[in-house]
Amino acid sequence: MKFYLGSDHAGYKTKEALQKYLVKKGIETIDLGAHDEGRVDYPDFAEKVAKMVAKDKDSFGLLVCGTGIGMSIAANKVKGIRAANPFNTKTAALAREHNNANVICLSGRMYKDSDAKQILGAFLKAKPSKLVRHVKRIKKISKLEKK
Ligand code: RB5
Asked: Whose CA is closest to atom 7 on ligand 1?
């Protein structure tokens, strides 16, 4: 499993903590910045991570900003990206199971890093559902990108 990582200034510290968490689990990480807490614009990092995930089959993205919202809005503009902004372990698991999310966007400001780790952990454990209804809905999302 490989994760491309990105954050803005508001998500920097949490991104660093989550990178350590992933590395401890033996997961490959590629950090595309930010590399400090200097003020930057979250769409720049969402774009870098989303483009790599879209190109690198079977990879995932982890994006952290103040809320996770801006990152998810920006990442979802890239074709092939299904970015989710789960707020607890249940929604993180469902993002994989029902939505086959390939990017997880988390918050550096709305909960503790220990919560962020748990949410990411639930995302890692879950697998996309093979139920026809879910697969069909993902295909409909892909079709939207062609309209
Ligand atoms: C930065 O202040 C903040 O707006 C950003 O990190 C993010 O929360 C946007 O969605």
From this structure: 66
Catalytic annotation present for 65 = yes
The pLDDT tens digits for 26-74 are 999 999 999 999 999 999 999 999 999 999 999 999 999 999 999 999 9
Cα 110 to ligand 1 centroid, rounded to whole Å: 11
pLDDT tens sequence across 69-115: 999 999 999 999 999 999 999 999 999 999 999 999 999 999 999 99
Atom of ligand 1 minimally distant from the CA of 69: 10
The three state secondary structure string of the chain is CEEEEEECCCCHHHHHHHHHHHHHCCCEEEECCCCCCCCCCHHHHHHHHHHHHHHCCCCEEEEEECCCHHHHHHHCCCCCCCEECCCCHHHHHHHHHCCCCCEEEEECCCCCHHHHHHHHHHHHHCCCCCCHHHHHHHHHHHHHCCC
pTM of the complete model: 0.98
Burial of 85 (0-12, 13-18, 19+ CB in 10 A): buried
